[in-house]
Each structure stands twice: as C-alpha cells, then as structure tokens.
Specification:
CATH architecture of the largest domain: 3-Layer(aba) Sandwich
Largest sheet: 8 strands, mixed
Oligomer: single chain
CATH topology of the largest domain: Rossmann fold
Number of strands: 19
Number of helices: 15
Shape: globular
CATH class of the largest domain: Alpha Beta
Radius of gyration: 21 Å
Strand content: 15-25%
Distance between the termini: 9 Å
Number of domains: 2
Length: 439
C-alpha cells in the first residue's frame, strides 16, 4: 500500500463509514398488559447523539434497551409496588442547541420521571442545564466530570446544583493513567497537546495540562483550534519544531483522522513514539478509516470487555455485553456500549433507592447519595469528587490501551489493555509498544 492510499481518507468518508443511529423514539423497557396506567410506568428520558459527528456514541443504545427489556420483563418493584419502565429516546444530532431543545420538549411533553444523558460535554451540559432549570432529576456520564461541573459554573464546597448528577473520569485519572502509560516507552518527555476550543478542551487545558506539567512532562500547547477544522499545520509545525515525541489529543472523532493524516504527510508521525487519543480513538471504525496509520495508536479506555464487572440492569457481564452487541449489530464492540450500560445501571438503582420514583425530589436525593455497582465498576456519589468538595459528581476510572492489528477473528483491530495504574481491578492484556509509522 502506498503512503497516499494509507492517508487519503476524507472526513466525509469517515462519517459515512461510521454511519448513524435512529432519531427520536419511545422504547418500552418491557411490554406487559399488567401495567396500564401512567402511575404504573416509570419514564426515563434518554437524550444523546444518535446522528451527526458524535452519532457513533449512540450506536449501541437500542441494543442496550432491548437487553434492559429482557432483564426487566417482570417489572421493577419499589416499596412493594411494581412498575413498568419506558425509555424515551431523543437525538441531539450532535448539536448542543438541539440537545437543550429536545430535553425541554421531553420534559414538557413526555411525563419524564428521570432524565439520563451521555457522550461529551456538548451533549451532557445543555441537557443538564435544561433539567436543572426545570427541576428534573438528571444523571449523566461520558464527559470528564470537570467539564460537566466547572463548565456549568459549579463551585466546590457549595451545592451549586440540586437536580443534576454526573459520574465519569476526571483530571486526576488522566494524570495517573498517562504517567504510568507514557513511562513504559523511553521518550524525551515532550508532550504536544491538541485541544479544541470547546468544553472538553477548556477543561483539559485548565486542569490536566498543568497537572501533567507538575508531574514532570514538558508540555507544548500551540493553542486551541475550532472543531471540524480542515488544517492542523500550525499545531503540527509547533510539535515538530519542539521535538515532541508524545502527542495527546481530545478532538471530535471525525477530526482526528484529518489531523493524523496531515501529521503523516508533514513528518510529525515519524517522530512520534506515543500518539495518545481521548474522545477520539474510542471506536474501531475510526481506526479502520485510517487503515495501517491506525496500528499502534494509544488511547484510554473507560470500558472494555475484560472489565471484571457486570451490569445489574442488563443482567450481563462485560464480556457478554460486548459479544451480544457484536452478534446483534454485526459491528465490533465499542467502549460506549459498556458506559451506557453503566448509565442504565445507575438510573435503575437511583429509581429503586428513591423509594418513591414518581417523586422527582426523592429521585434527586437518591442520586446525591447513590452507591451502586455498574458495568464500569462501582460508583459512589456519597464520596463525591475532588475529595468530597464536589457533591454532584463522582469519579470512575480509566485503563491505558493500544489499538493493534488483530491477531485473529473477524475484525481488523483489537484494543489491548496496556496500563491499569488507575484501575487496578482490571487486568492488562498486552505490553505497550511505541508507535511506528507504516512504511
């Protein structure tokens, strides 16, 4: 394969390869004539990106709700009363303004008892803001907790938010992960950061970048860029001129192949020993879009089939979730399938813990003290984040991973776990190697 063939995929082709999921729908968690009235049914609104640049995050939603259906066929019993559950889906189309409007429409028109949302601050924050304003209990995941909390004006030590709660990894998890993972390869410790001008990029620049510098990494930050940019030459030149051997990115998924193709064309990839992706690099389709350029890229993983945890809401182990998704969809498992399973786990646990799931204040109070098991591991809102100073968020953990050419099976890539310093309960599956540009 020539270099031009390796690096010649467009953003449009990338988006076509990923595809998109269905838009708004109402999906009953189980269909039983025993539950006829509104008072007998708990309605969970689920707003997320199911089309557009972030649509890949929602590809597993219908599969997961089908598994929830099967596991809850006899209903959810709370304080001696058995309820049906209906999940109402809303598609943000990867647009924050639409995310807010879909949430408001759902609150006003669908008799929602609990809202859940996931997948990047561009989704989570506007949904949470709409819920906070409306007095709707809301639970979210898959956005660094600092982006959720500080990005919405949260003040540590104060009860800034009453209705909205979030569980996910944060800055300290990245520092632990990267310090361990990057130390496995001999480098000059110079790290180029590629951070967009959005909630994720701002949170990472304010929290993670100085923390990595304090940990001894030499950070090169050429400044922010706009999402969906077509030209990364400025950043590539700055990284090359500084001699960086580690690149750390937090782009929209479609942006990374554009950057990395240009990095290969302009000589940056040849000097890079660790290409660390976050936000992008979560899905096999992204790697397949790059062909051999994707072999050896590094990532963090917030869920993996090797996680030794199960989903109470689905009644499946992590390995069973991955295998079931692949069989049903014909696509390779992805991290968000497990993360969304954990969101369903926590949502069902909160409704049960409230004792009165039709009482929104009781559900919000249950979220504030929620402690339960999920597919990504245990979560504990009573402990909070930032040493307990942040009451509306709690931390989950990350493992270090590397995309390698699959040794066998139907898929081209496999995601190996190479570092578990931030999540010791998860076993590693392979040693980490330096990135090598294909010849």
């Amino acid at each position: 394969m020539t270099k031009s063939n390796i690096i010649g995929i467009s953003r449009r082709s990338f988006n076509q390869l990923l595809g998109s999921a269905v838009a708004t729908a109402s999906v009953p968690a189980f269909a039983s004539r025993a539950f006829a009235s509104a008072e007998d049914t708990l309605r969970i609104g689920f707003v997320g990106p199911r089309s557009g640049p972030l649509g890949v995050f929602g590809e597993g939603d219908n599969f997961l709700i089908d598994k929830l259906n099967a596991n809850m066929a006899n209903g959810l019993t709370i304080n001696g009363k058995t309820y049906a559950v209906k999940v109402v889906l809303g598609d943000t189309q990867s647009n924050p303004v639409r995310a807010s409007q879909v949430t408001k429409d759902m609150i006003n028109g669908d008799n929602i008892d609990l809202m859940i949302t996931s997948s990047t601050p561009e989704t989570v924050n506007p949904v949470a803001d709409a819920c906070e304003a409306a007095g709707m209990p809301c639970l979210s995941t898959t956005a660094p907790w600092e982006a959720f909390y500080f990005g919405r004006g949260g003040v540590p030590g104060e009860k800034t938010f009453k209705w909205t709660y979030h569980f996910c990894f944060g800055t300290s998890n990245f520092v632990t992960l990267y310090t361990d993972q990057w130390s496995q390869i001999e480098t000059n410790k110079k790290v180029g950061v590629l951070l967009p001008s959005d909630a994720d990029g701002n949170a990472i620049r304010a929290g993670l970048v100085p923390a990595l510098a304090d940990a001894g990494w030499d950070i090169v930050d050429p400044g922010p860029y706009e999402n969906m940019s077509a030209d990364f030459s400025k950043h590539i030149k700055a990284f090359k001129d500084s001699g960086v051997e580690i690149v750390n990115t937090f782009p929209f998924p479609p942006d990374f192949p554009v950057f990395w193709r240009q990095a290969a064309q302009q000589g940056l990839a040849a000097q890079t020993k660790i290409m660390q992706m976050a936000k992008a690099g979560l899905f096999a389709a992204e790697l397949e879009a790059m062909g051999p350029l994707g072999y050896g890229l590094h990532a963090g993983a917030y869920w993996h089939p090797s996680f030794p945890f199960s989903s109470p809401a689905l009644g499946l182990t992590s390995a069973e979730i991955a295998a079931g998704y692949e069989k049903t969809s014909g696509k390779q498992w992805n991290q968000q399938v497990g993360a969304t399973a954990s969101l369903l786990d926590a949502a069902i646990a909160a409704l049960a813990a409230s004792g009165a799931p039709k009482d929104k204040a009781a559900v919000a109070a249950a979220l504030g003290s929620l402690k339960c098991d999920t597919a990504v591991g245990p979560i504990d809102f009573a402990a909070g984040a930032m040493g307990g100073a942040v009451a509306n968020a709690c931390e989950t953990h990350l493992v270090g991973a590397q995309w390698n050419k699959a040794e066998k099976g139907p898929w081209d890539f496999q995601l190996d776990i190479v570092s578990n310093a931030d999540h010791p309960a998860v076993p590693t599956t392979a040693p980490m190697t330096a990135y090598k540009l294909p010849g």
